[in-house]
């Protein structure tokens, strides 16, 4: 029987054109957008739409600080919901926002992630410093809401969001809703925050006609979607929630015999997926926990592995849920707090007490959920109660090590397998050992593409490129050089690479040598820390080449850093500032400002973790 529709033929055709090719995640976004329109229409009731409603729409500013793109996605979703509710919305990355506007932006939503040791994303640092500086304006009359994105396994969870929230309030702004700190499974809390924030905005700003021009009468159209509010439609239907089963083409161990590390080069086929990527993007790998670890945990808890439990997406047996749905390897304060209440453990509660932060850090290191339930057993725990203490198992992201232009319908990654012994048990990285051990030729791995808008080659192919990537941080630079060669980019390329030993740890050695011979790589500087009496790292090589490095920057070079955030990235940044000061003849403050200008101009980009 033919389905009836209240839409005209023209409206139905427009709708079909707009949703064609959208991924499942994008369709979910559209549903949220339409839900906002529907909510606005219902609240409008029988009120006659004012002809000048759009002109009278309240002004809302949404700011985001994003390292991997998640905060940007949330901000774009918030914009769509606010537009549907009748607001005029300006959306800015914090790096593009003119701070002089702040005192006049009376309605403000902020979505910001945290990186490193509680720091804001690179593109948010200038605004963060302005807000915390003496030039920040008083903000009486401003209403705001903050969403923080982070990872609760880190001590300074959502610290950047907390800092923005505290500082805005200290400057006199008033909260629309309480700050929300979202963990790695941020979708649901972000959606609730958007809903509550938009409702609060409507109470304080009272749009004349919610959704005017977008959702009333016969003039209904998806104007906001068509005009760029919606994220760009991807050619592929595959996403984080619905990954593509990529066939393994090759799995090659890169580390030499005798190396203290185990690094693999893995090639996967994307044939038939429609997935595309750019150098700088990441490959998301949907992982599962180790079978033995899952069985040991279920046995220790004395639970029925075939009992059913409901996750966000489906109903699974407890064993399948522990395998694929929940994180049982990463400890966090949030888990310990929930489990301490469940186990009624005074000892665990004491560990969590104020003043015991150092002891807690020591306890969290090198342990997993099984260690906790063995040390602090809970009596007669129910499956649903225990599942409630766990957070969602998240995909693992790997910097893509290939250029699509050079490798059509394939993707390469560089994987450092994590294996170590701790507290009497062997430990295994969830994704890294899966890829190193399980991923053999012909098998499949569930994957998707995670775009990284903040780590891109310069649009000008004449621009010189400086790449600093020790260890597996070399991965994206293999993609960069492949891409530049495939496109015949005339710009110069310079690589700094470091690891422990030249003989065993020079990743992709033959390829770099070939690129140097072919002229695709103009300079390469190496630092192998265990081959010399005094340990030498990439930042030392930078200082040795400081004069030429500064000359490249003066020529317009773009500089990229990939790898460890805790130590390497900090040392590289310090070296960069010192090089600019010495060879540019600048005072320390001026040199630091020079480097910040590079960041603002997107000429200094980092992918650190």
Automatic annotation (TrEMBL):
Residues 241-458 form the FAD-binding FR-type domain. One of its GO terms (biological process) is hydrogen sulfide biosynthetic process. Binds 1 FAD per subunit. Binds 1 FMN per subunit. Keywords: Amino-acid biosynthesis, Cysteine biosynthesis, Electron transport, FAD, Flavoprotein, FMN, NADP, Oxidoreductase, Transport. This is Sulfite reductase [NADPH] flavoprotein alpha-component. NCBIfam families: cysJ (TIGR01931), PRK06214.1 (NF004859). Component of the sulfite reductase complex that catalyzes the 6-electron reduction of sulfite to sulfide. This is one of several activities required for the biosynthesis of L-cysteine from sulfate. The flavoprotein component catalyzes the electron flow from NADPH -> FAD -> FMN to the hemoprotein component. FAD binds at residues 329, 396-399, 414-416, 420, 429-432, 609. Its EC number is 1.8.1.2. It is an enzyme of class 1 (oxidoreductase). Residues 60-198 form the Flavodoxin-like domain. The keyword NADP applies.
